[in-house]
Amino acid sequence: MREVYFIKQNKEKWLGIEQVIQGKIKKNPDDLSSLYINLINDLSFAQTYYPKSNTTVYLNHLSSQIFQKIYKTKRVEENRILYFFKTEVPLLVFQYRRYLMYAFLFFILFTSIGVLSAIYDKDFVNIILGESYVNETIENIKKGNAVGVYQSGSTWGSTIGIIFNNIGVGAKLFIYGVFGGVGTLYALLSNSVMLGSFQYFFYDYGALKESARGIWLHGVFEIFAMVVEAMCGLILGASILFPKTLSRFNSFKNGFKDSFKIFLSTIPFTICAGIIEGYITRHALKMPLALNLIIILGSLAVIGYYYFVYPSVVNKKINKHVHDAIL
C-alpha cells in the first residue's frame, strides 16, 4: 500500500485519537485500550513498510501518548498525588526539556551580566541590593559573620515570609510567560542579575567562601526552582507564539495546563528552601563544613536528578512498554 493512501485511509482515526489525548473526547478505559491496540497495528505496519517516514515517527509519538493516558487512568485510582510527581511531571519535563535548557542558558547569561556589572561599576551593588542591606552586610563581614543577615527575626516567622515571597517570585516567572515569554525573561533577568552582583559583592569583600556555606544551603532548591519556573513561562509563551497545527487558543490552553503542572512540582522544593533558610542557614558558620557540603550537594543531587535525569528514565520506561506491546 502506498504511504499516501495509508495516511488518507487512517487520517480521521488518528485525528480522533489526538482529540482523545487532548481531552476533547472522553473514553472509558476499555475504549482507550481498543484505540491503543488499533494504533499499535498501524504503527507496526508503518514500521514495516515506511520505516524512515515521518508517518512512523508520528504514530510512535501518538502511541506513546495514548499509552500514557491509559497508564494514567489505571494509576490515578491508586494515588493521584504520587502519580503526579512520579510520572506525569517527569514526562512533561522530558517533553519540554529544550525549554529547561533555554532557561538555564538565559540564567547563566543574566547572572554573568550581574557579575560583570558589579565588577565594572562599584555602585551597581548598592543600586541592586540597596544601601542599607549592603552596609549591614559589610559590618557583618567585618565581624566575621557573613550570613548575619539571615539570623534576624524568629525562625518560623522568617520561614513563612520567605516561602510566600519565593512562591510569588516563581508565580511571576511563570505567569509573565503570557507576554510571549518576554515577561518571563525580564523577571529572570532581574533575579539573575541580583544573584550575580550579590555573589560578586561577597567575593569583593573576601567572604565568598563563608557566604556560600550559608547562601547555598537554601539557594540550591530556591535558584534551581526559579529556573524551572522560568522554563514554565517560556513554555507558556511558546504556546502562544507557535501554535503549530492547533488554534492559538487551544495551543495556549494546552501550554498553560502543561506548564502549570511543572510549576506546581517546584512548590515542594520552594517550601524546603524556605524551611532551610529560616531554620538552618542562620547556623551555617557554626556547622561543620562537611555538614554544609552534605546539605548543599545533597540538595543539588535531589533536584538535579528529578529534573534532568529522572524524566528520561520515566520516558524510557513508557517507551519500553509501548515497544513490548508492539512485539
From TrEMBL:
One Pfam family assigned to this protein is SpoIIM
Q: Which residues cross the membrane?
A: 99-120, 173-203, 215-242, 262-280, 289-308
Superkingdom of the source species? Bacteria
Keyword flag Transmembrane: yes
Q: Which UniProt keywords apply?
A: Membrane, Transmembrane, Transmembrane helix
Q: Which PANTHER family match?
A: SLR1478 PROTEIN
Kindly provide the name given to this protein in its UniProt entry.
Stage II sporulation protein M
